[in-house]
Amino acid sequence: MPYTRCPKCRHEQYATHAILGLQIECKKCGRAYLAKDEAENESEPLVSTESPFGERPVLNILKSVGFLFLLIAVVGLVFWGIVSLIRPTPKGIEKKNTDPQAVENRNVAREPAELPARRGGRMPRLNG
Questions:
Q1: Is residue 122 part of a domain?
Q2: Are 9 and 42 within one domain?
Q3: Res 42 pLDDT > 60
Q4: pTM check: above 0.70
Q5: Mean pLDDT throughout 75-82?
Q6: What does each C-alpha distance from 9 to 23, 30, 31, 36, 53 come to in angstroms?
Q7: Residue 117: pLDDT above 90?
Q8: 54 with 9: CB under 8 angstroms?
Q9: Residue 21 resides in a domain
Q10: Region Disordered: start and end of each range (predicted)?
Q11: 28 and 70 belong to one structural domain
Q12: How many folded domains does the chain comprise?
C-alpha cells in the first residue's frame, strides 16, 4: 500500500491509489500537500532543510518567571558572598585573645572615666 510523507513534519500516512496526486491534509500538523507515493521516491534523501518543529516562535528564556527568580537568587548570593568577604569579622565571633596583658588592656579601656569632683558637696535631688 502506498504511503505519503508530509514535507513539513515528515509524518507518514497511508494513502490509497485513488487519492494519489490529490491535495490532502496532514493529520499531525494540518498542512495541505500533494499526495504522492513515497515508496517510489526512496532514492531521495530523507534530510529536510526545514525545521522538524515548523515555524514556532523561539521561547525567550528571559520572559520566564522561574528564570528571573533564579537569576535574582544567584545575584543575591554573589553579592552576599562578596560583602561577607569584605566586611570585618564581628567582635562576638572573633578569636578570643587569652594573653593576660591584652585582657587587662581591654578591661582598662572599658572602665568608665572618673568624673571630676563636684563643688558643693551633695548631689541635688531630682525628685521632690
A1: no
A2: yes
A3: no
A4: no
A5: 94
A6: 16, 10, 9, 16, 7
A7: no
A8: yes
A9: yes
A10: 90-128
A11: no
A12: 2
